[in-house]
Design goal:
The structure holds two protein chains of two kinds. Chain A is mostly beta strands. Chain A contains two helices and eleven strands; from the N terminus they run ααβββββββββββ. The termini of chain A are far apart. By secondary structure, chain B is of the alpha+beta class. Chain B contains nine helices and 33 strands. In chain B, strands 1, 2, 5, 9, 10, 13 and 17 form a seven-stranded mixed beta sheet that branches. In chain B, strands 3, 4, 6, 7 and 8 form a five-stranded antiparallel beta sheet that branches. In chain B, strands 23-27-32-29-30 form a five-stranded mixed beta sheet, with no helix packed on it. The chains are: A mainly beta, B alpha+beta. At the A-B interface, α2, β1, β9, β10 and β11 of A face β14, β16, β17, β19 and α4 of B.
C-alpha cells in the first residue's frame, strides 16, 4: 500500500510531464528545483466521511532536482485538526534526485475545515532561491474566494464579466 | 499636461467648458506596503462635474465612514495641509459652490472609519464655467494597483499604474447600453466629448484589452468563460453642457486588478518587439482568473487539453495568501511566456516543451534554445523598459534587470540571475537553457550590434534563411550572426568570447587543419576536438587522427565527452586508407526519429564506438564527423575527445 501511495505522490509531482504527453505542448516557466507533496497514506480515504476523532495518516514527500546544502521544510496545520505525530520542521542537505519522506498523523477535532500546508525552501545565494509547497485540505475550503461577477455585453456585442468599484 | 480632452478643447471654440486633469503622472497617491483596506478607501472612484460657479464631487461610499474633502486652487492638495477642507461629511458627495468660473480647483478626499483617516485619494481637478452645449463631456484616468517584487518575493509595496491603451466605455446604468466608446492613452487618461445625455445615471468602465492602432494587441480573458474583464466606476448623472472628471483606481483586493497587470506586461513586451520589428505584434490572448491553478503558466501555439480556450498565454491566479499562484503579478514569468509567443510569431520554435530545469546542462538542444531565448527575453524587455519607460517596471529598486523572479506561490517559487549563473551549477554548453540565456544577454549588453543583431538572427535569419529541415537551436543563431559578421568584424571576438565563456565551442580548434587522412595527427586522448561549419568553404568539419595497430591485437576506438549536443559518427581506415568499420552510436541505438523522447545530451548517449582486431600492422586512422542520423535534440556542432584502448 505504501509503495502505491509513494508512486501516486511521485506521479502527482510529475503531473506536468504527463500533461505534455499528448496534444499541443505548452511552453511553461522554469520549474523550481524542489517539489513537495502531502497526501494521505490511504489513498482510498474519502475526505467527505472524515469525522471528529478520526486519525489521519499522511506522508510528506520532498524531492530535489539539485544538490542543495540546506533545504528547510515546514508543516503548518490550521483549522480543526491537531498534530499527533511527526516533524513539523526539518532542515538538511538533499542530493539531486534525493527524496525525503516524512510521515505525520493528525487528529480531526471537529468536522468542518482543516488545512495542512507544507513548504520547502532553499536559498543558495542572494540572487538564487527555490521553494515549493503543497496544501492538503480537509472538509470545505476556508479561503475567501472572489464572488462570481455578472456577465454583461460590451459595445461590440461581446460578453464581458464586470466588476464595479 | 495636455490631455486629449484639453487638446480637443483648445482646437474647438464651440465648447465653453474646460477641464484639466492632474495627478496622472503615475506617482501620486500610490499606496505602500501593508496597505489596509482603509488605506485605499475612497481612492477607487472620484468624480468631479463642473457647472456654473460650482463643482459637484462624488466618490464611492464606504460603510460606517465619514469623509474629509480637501481642496486648493493650486495643484498639490493634501490632507496634511489642513487648508481648504470640508470635514466630517456623512455622504459621499459634495457640491462646492461660490467658485469663480475659469479657475481650476483641485481636490482629494479621505475616509475616516473608527477615528482613523485613510490615505489621500488621487488628486482631481475641474474648472467651473457657464454651460452652453446640450451634450456632456467627461475625462479622467484609470489606474490599477500593482505589487512590487524583489529577489525575496513581493515586498508588500504597491503602486498605482496606468491602464494604458485600453478600451473605455460610457454605460447607461439603467439599460446597460453603451453610449460612448474610447481608449486610454499612455498615461491612462481618457476623454469623451459632447456625449448625448441619458435620462438615468451613467458610469465609466474599462475593458481588459488594448484597442489602439499601432499598439500591441492584447486581450486578457477569464479562463473559464473566455470573456474580457471590465471594471466600472460609480454611477453619476451629468447634465447637458457639463464636464466631469473621473478617476478609477482598481485595487489589488478587487481580484480583477491582476488582469490589468497582465494586460500591461503583455503590452510593454509587445512594445519592445515593435522597437526592433518596426510594427506592433498581432493579437495575443491571455487567459487568467483568480484561483486558476489548473492552466498555466504557459504558452500554447494552438488549443488543446492544456489550453482549452485556444492559443495564448495561460496565467495561474491566486485569490488569497497561499491559495493559488499569483503569477498575474509575476511580471518576469509573463514576459518569459511572451518570449515564447514572440518565437512562435516571428521566428521558429521546435521545442518539445515540457518541464525544464535551470541547472541542467544536458537538455534537448531545441528545448535549451527555446527556454534560453525566453529567459533572455525577460532581461531584454526589462532592459529596454528601464531605458524607455522605467515607470512600468515592478521590481524593487536595486533589483538587477537580469534577475528573474517567480514569487512564491501555492506550488513553487524561483529566483535566479541570467547574467551571473549560480557557480555551483557549473552552467555551460548549448544544451543548457541558462547558458543560452547568458550568451544572449551578454551579447545584447556588450556588442555594438547588441539587440539588433539578436533580433535579426531571431526574426529574419532563422525563419527565412535557416535550413527548414534543421531543428532550431542556438546553432541557428550562430549561423545567422556569421552572415552578418566576419572574423574581421569588431564584434566577432566578443561574440566568440560570449560563446566560449559558456564552453559553447563552435569554432575551429587548435588541431585544425586536419581535413584529410594524410597527414593526420596521432590520437592523444586528452585532446578536445571541435566539429564546426567552415564558413569560408561552407563545408562541414571532418576530423582525422592516426593510431598505430599491431596485427592480431584487439582495439576499441571511441568518442567520449561529447559536448554542446554533439552526435558523432566514427569511421576507421586501415593503413591502405580502406574504410573497414563505421559506427554512429556505441550503444547500437537509433535515435534518428526519437522526436520528444530523445536521450539527454549527456556526453555518452550519442557517442560512437568501434571494437576490432587489427588484420594488419601499421598506421590506422579514425574519421569523426557529425552524424547524419543525429536526433533533432542534438546539434551539428560541438566537441568530443577520441580514445583508443587495447586490452
Amino acid at each position: 500500500m505504501k509503495r502505491a501511495v509513494i508512486i501516486t505522490v511521485i506521479a502527482i509531482l510529475f503531473a506536468p510531464l504527463c500533461l505534455y504527453a499528448n496534444g499541443s505542448r505548452p511552453k511553461g516557466k522554469p520549474a523550481s528545483l524542489l517539489s513537495v507533496a502531502v497526501a494521505p497514506v490511504d489513498e482510498s480515504l474519502s475526505l467527505d466521511n472524515v469525522s471528529a476523532g478520526d486519525v489521519l495518516e499522511l506522508e510528506v514527500t520532498l524531492l530535489s532536482h539539485a544538490d542543495l546544502e540546506k533545504v528547510s521544510l515546514t508543516v503548518k496545520l490550521s483549522g480543526h485538526i491537531e498534530l499527533l505525530q511527526g516533524e513539523v520542521d526539518w532542515s538538511g542537505p538533499l542530493k539531486s534526485g534525493g527524496e525525503l519522506l516524512l510521515p505525520i498523523s493528525v487528529k480531526i477535532l471537529k468536522k468542518g475545515i482543516g488545512k495542512i500546508k507544507v513548504r520547502a525552501f532553499s536559498r543558495i545565494s542572494e540572487t538564487v532561491s527555490f521553494s515549493a509547497s503543497d496544501t492538503f485540505k480537509i472538509g470545505r475550503d476556508e479561503d475567501k474566494k472572489p464572488s462570481r461577477l455578472p456577465i454583461k455585453e460590451d459595445g461590440k456585442g461581446r460578453n464581458i464579466i464586470e466588476h464595479r468599484l | 499636461m495636455d490631455t486629449p480632452l484639453k487638446q480637443f478643447l483648445s482646437a474647438s471654440l464651440i465648447l465653453i467648458f474646460q477641464l484639466q486633469l492632474s495627478g496622472c503622472s503615475g506617482s501620486s497617491g500610490g499606496s505602500t506596503g501593508g496597505a489596509s483596506k482603509l488605506d485605499r478607501v475612497s481612492t477607487n472612484s472620484l468624480n468631479a462635474t463642473a457647472k456654473d460657479g460650482e463643482i459637484v464631487l462624488s466618490w464611492n461610499e464606504e460603510a460606517d465612514a465619514t469623509y474629509n474633502l480637501y481642496w486648493l486652487d493650486t495643484t498639490g492638495v493634501s490632507s496634511a495641509d489642513h487648508l481648504g477642507a470640508f470635514r466630517n461629511l456623512s455622504v459621499p458627495f459634495y457640491n462646492h459652490t461660490g467658485l469663480e468660473n475659469g479657475n481650476t480647483y483641485y481636490y482629494v478626499v479621505t475616509a475616516t472609519i473608527d477615528g482613523s483617516e485613510s490615505a489621500d485619494s488621487r488628486e482631481i481637478s475641474a474648472i467651473p464655467a457657464i454651460p452652453s452645449g446640450t451634450g456632456f463631456s467627461l475625462a479622467g484616468s484609470i489606474k490599477y494597483e500593482d505589487r512590487e517584487y524583489g529577489v525575496s518575493g513581493f515586498t508588500g509595496v504597491t503602486y498605482l499604474k496606468a491602464v494604458r491603451h485600453a478600451s473605455v466605455e460610457v454605460v447607461d446604468s439603467a439599460s446597460a447600453g453603451v453610449i460612448a466608446s474610447g481608449v486610454t492613452d499612455d498615461s491612462g487618461a481618457f476623454s469623451f466629448i459632447d456625449v448625448v445625455p441619458v435620462a438615468t445615471a451613467i458610469y465609466v468602465r474599462v475593458l481588459s484589452e488594448t484597442s489602439v492602432a499601432d499598439i500591441p494587441e492584447v486581450a486578457v480573458k477569464h479562463t473559464s468563460t473566455a470573456n474580457l474583464y471590465a471594471v466600472g466606476g460609480a454611477d453619476f448623472s451629468p447634465g447637458g453642457g457639463e464636464v466631469s472628471s473621473i478617476l478609477l483606481d482598481i485595487p489589488v483586493d478587487s481580484y480583477v486588478a491582476g488582469a490589468f497587470n497582465i494586460l500591461d506586461v503583455m503590452t510593454f513586451s509587445g512594445e519592445f518587439i515593435k522597437a526592433y520589428e518596426g510594427a506592433a505584434p498581432p493579437l495575443l490572448n491571455a487567459y487568467w482568473q483568480a484561483g486558476n491553478s489548473s492552466y498555466g503558466t504557459w504558452f500554447c501555439d494552438a488549443g488543446g487539453a492544456q489550453c482549452p480556450k485556444g492559443a495564448g498565454i495561460y496565467v495561474l491566479g491566486g485569490y488569497a495568501p497561499g491559495s493559488g499562484d499569483t503569477d498575474e503579478y509575476d511580471d518576469d514569468v509573463m514576459i518569459h511566456e511572451y518570449g515564447h509567443f514572440a518565437a512562435f510569431e516571428y521566428s521558429r520554435d521546435d521545442s518539445p516543451g515540457g518541464t525544464h530545469y535551470l541547472n541542467k546542462n544536458d537538455q534537448d538542444m531545441r528545448l535549451s534554445w527555446s527556454e534560453g531565448w525566453s529567459a533572455f527575453f525577460v532581461g531584454g524587455v526589462k532592459t529596454w523598459i528601464d531605458a524607455n519607460k522605467a515607470e512600468l517596471l515592478s521590481s524593487e529598486s536595486g533589483t538587477l534587470l537580469s534577475q528573474y523572479v517567480d514569487t512564491d506561490g501555492s506550488s513553487s517559487g524561483l529566483t535566479f540571475d541570467i547574467a551571473d549563473p549560480e557557480p555551483s551549477w557549473n552552467i555551460k554548453y548549448a544544451s543548457s537553457e541558462l547558458a543560452v540565456a547568458n550568451v544572449l544577454y551578454k551579447t545584447m549588453s556588450n556588442t555594438e550590434a547588441g539587440m539588433n543583431a539578436i533580433w535579426y538572427a531571431f526574426a529574419d535569419y532563422i525563419p527565412y534563411n535557416y535550413d527548414p529541415s534543421l531543428p532550431v537551436n542556438i546553432e541557428a543563431l550562430w549561423d545567422g550572426w556569421l552572415t552578418l559578421e566576419t572574423e574581421a568584424s569588431a564584434d566577432f571576438p566578443i561574440l566568440l568570447a560570449n560563446f566560449t565563456s559558456m564552453e559553447i565551442d563552435y569554432y575551429r580548434d587548435g588541431l585544425e587543419e586536419d581535413g584529410t587522412i594524410n597527414p593526420a595527427r596521432t590520437i592523444n586522448s586528452g585532446e578536445i576536438h571541435t566539429l564546426y561549419l567552415n564558413y569560408s568553404t561552407a563545408s562541414r568539419d571532418f576530423d582525422y587522427a592516426a593510431f598505430d595497430a599491431v596485427k592480431g591485437t584487439a582495439y576499441t576506438v571511441r568518442t567520449t565527452n561529447l559536448k554542446n549536443g554533439e552526435d558523432t559518427t566514427l569511421r576507421l581506415f586501415d593503413p591502405d586508407s580502406f574504410p573497414f568499420a563505421t559506427n554512429d552510436n556505441g550503444s547500437g541505438a537509433d535515435y534518428s526519429a526519437c522526436d520528444s523522447s530523445c536521450p539527454d545530451n549527456n556526453g555518452t548517449a550519442l557517442a560512437s564506438k568501434i571494437s576490432f582486431t587489427a588484420y594488419t600492422t601499421g598506421a590506422f586512422h579514425a574519421e569523426v564527423t557529425t552524424s547524419n542520423l543525429r536526433p533533432d535534440s542534438a546539434g551539428r556542432y560541438g566537441s568530443y575527445s577520441l580514445v583508443v584502448t587495447s586490452p
